[in-house]
Amino acid sequence: MPSFQYGNTTLEYSLEVTSTKKDVSILVEWLDGIRVIVPEGIKDEQLNAILYRKAPWILNKWNEFKEIVSLPSPKEYVSGEKFPYLGRNYRFKTHKREGITKSSLLFRQGKFIAEVQLL
């Protein structure tokens, strides 16, 4: 994996070369890390100069992602699960009912209540 040095920090990145671009794109993503997309024929010296010039921005974005603790867990939509709403967490309750044809979701008495068809 290519990398470049900025001060005491070594930044690794993935490099993608494409014939459809005319300029350099730098993407800093939480899960994928730093991605650099360059046009065909760019010289290493040109790329290094661009990366060095953009390094403060790259480091800033990278440090923002370090503050994220972990991926949020996927929701299962089962009774008792909590969901954030207007800055607070509220419990989710599922009611299975016979004879209804359309599911509904209500917010009542500090709970999300889903009414679904009994299968």
Structure summarized in a few sentences:
Helices cover 19% and strands 43% of the residues. It has 119 residues and is α/β, with parallel strands linked by helices.
What features would you describe in this structure?
The chain is an alpha/beta fold and 119 residues long. It folds into two domains: 3-66, no CATH class; 82-117, no CATH class. Helix content is 19%, strand content 43%. It has one helix and nine strands. The strands form three sheets. A four-stranded mixed sheet has the order 6-7-9-8, with no helix packed on it. A three-stranded mixed sheet has the order 3-5-4, with helices on one face. A hairpin with a 2-residue loop joins strand 8 and strand 9. It is elongated and about 70 Å long.
Features:
1 helix, elongated, 119 residues, alpha/beta, 2 domains, three-stranded mixed beta sheet, four-stranded mixed beta sheet
What is the β-strand count?
9
* Biggest sheet overview: 4 strands, mixed
Number of discrete domains: 2
Spatial order of strands in the largest sheet: 6-7-9-8
Order of helices and strands: EEEEEHEEEE
How many separate helices?
A: 1
- Mean pLDDT rating: 90
Q: What is the terminal separation in angstroms?
A: 52 Å
Structural class: alpha/beta
Question: How much β-strand is present in the residues?
Answer: 35-45%
